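Q: Predict the assembly, please.
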Amino acid sequence: MTVSLVTSWLAQAPLPEELQEQITLDSAILTEQFYFYTVVVMWLIHVGFMAYEGGASRRKNVMSTAMKNILTIAVVTPTFYYFGWYIYGCFQEGWPQDGHGSPTVGNDLLVGFCQNTAPWSAQMGPNLGDHVSAVFFLAFLLFSWTTASIMSGALIERVRLSAFLILAAVLGSVVWIMDAAWGWSSGGWLVTKFGFHDSIASLVVHGVAGAFALGVLLNLGPRIGKYDFAGRARTFRAHNTHLTLMGLMLIFTGFYGFYAACLVIQSTIVPGWLNIYLSPATLGAIAFTITVGFAGGFTGGWFASKGDPFWTLSGGLAGVISVSAGADVYHPSLAYILATSGGMVAVWSGLWIERKLRVDDAVGAVAVHGVCGFYGVLLVGIFAGGFPTGVNNIPTSFGGQLMGMLAFFPLAFLPGYLASWVLKKFNLLRVPPEVELEGLDMAEFQADFFPEFERVPETIVLPTGEEVESAPVLLEAFAQINGHRAGEPVERR
Amino acid sequence: MIDSFPFDEWAEDIAGYWTFGPGNSTGTYVLTVLGIILMVASIVGWVVMENRKLAAQAALLRAAGGMPAPGGVPPGPGPSQPPFAGPSTDPGM
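A: Predicted assembly structure:
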């Protein structure tokens, strides 16, 4: 029976049309698998962020910090599904020129992309005829989670969970995706008119997240005791620096998935890899860049911070962010040099933000992501000027990059500032100061999450470098803020 | 054998089945609205429930008298220990 089956198969040689159909289907399924696995790898970014922030917090805040970070997923997923993706599909030209027929420029495949992004459209659910739309949406969803998570670390130990979730929805499902529509799509107006080039989202994700976080931090204010009466910064010790560094390593691993998901591939439609602007690229080129970017970033971070572990590894991330905008075009040697400078820029700007601006960014997110995101886009204007970008092949230029920076800073900063200002006005931004002093875990969970570890007095590092017990320092700081001494009735701020 | 597998036929049968209708159908619109309601209700719920929890904890701390000692150590007599020595995370620039 087997022989007769084989014989009958051999007698029926497939026609060229049948073969073409099968190859097209295989190509679509391969694309589907590719984006699916980038999503899986990108989950590691969120494992990493949860560990990174949990470790950076003080012991009394560890679980509320971790939960706050991971609940980003719970709120950004539905908001991105219901309106975030629609923004990306429909606002590439600034305002839809043709309703659901937008965008009207760009590659033929993507003209009219808007109608496919509405939550009730056939592409936004199970669709037997479409192998690509769902996984492409999911890759962008992971980018949204990442953008919101970047803000998360800056706000730890005093922001309310609910306030953070609202801000995460605004950043992850409105602000970043609007800037992606404008500057990270083949039909985006910054790309088609100015040749804006940010291939792996230095500014589009990281810069924007940092600028948004800065707007929030200005309203949120520093942790109690962060600054002394003279405005000098004290340092809160991370309760588990090992966990923080392990978290960063997980973020770096997930970042390879992020890089890969920024490329476009479907072999029966285009003969090779494309970047997000639909210009030819290779996976190898960006893999080179991210890898030497880590090396350069670690180097720059180490030297600038004199070997501080936290800043050395953060420097690695800063280095990669600094070269992400030109990851598809930089020579590895150039990427190495630029990433080294990025690692240094992150450390210096982080210290400047903490000490001169007196903004308490608990993990240096504004420096690492915000500053280096803008820096990365500027570097493309300097070192990759003239590179044809997008379907119109507009040359990348310093002016075009500057245009992007000028468009994105207010787009990111103002909503962060305004949204947090509104929350503050309703007294919904920050936890009560008594709760902040005692620790958020007690309020949220009525538990200490190190039950078998002896509880010892918390310490704090003074501007002089001396490490002392924190209780008197923080109580004094609280008294200064609230105009009373310990033991007196407390007014809510 | 591959040609005889009724993929297209079965695909056609189930195309309109997906939980209350395919894309752009009434069922999908209703599901979308329900999902949005759940999303908004969750966010409101987070705000309200957290506010209650934090207000209750703050009131408890104020009623207990004095201020809580930072670090979750309950106020009152207890063994004090010398501050830990060791390097800070400050790069010292």
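The first helix of chain A runs from residue 2 to 11. The radius of gyration of chain A is 24 Å.
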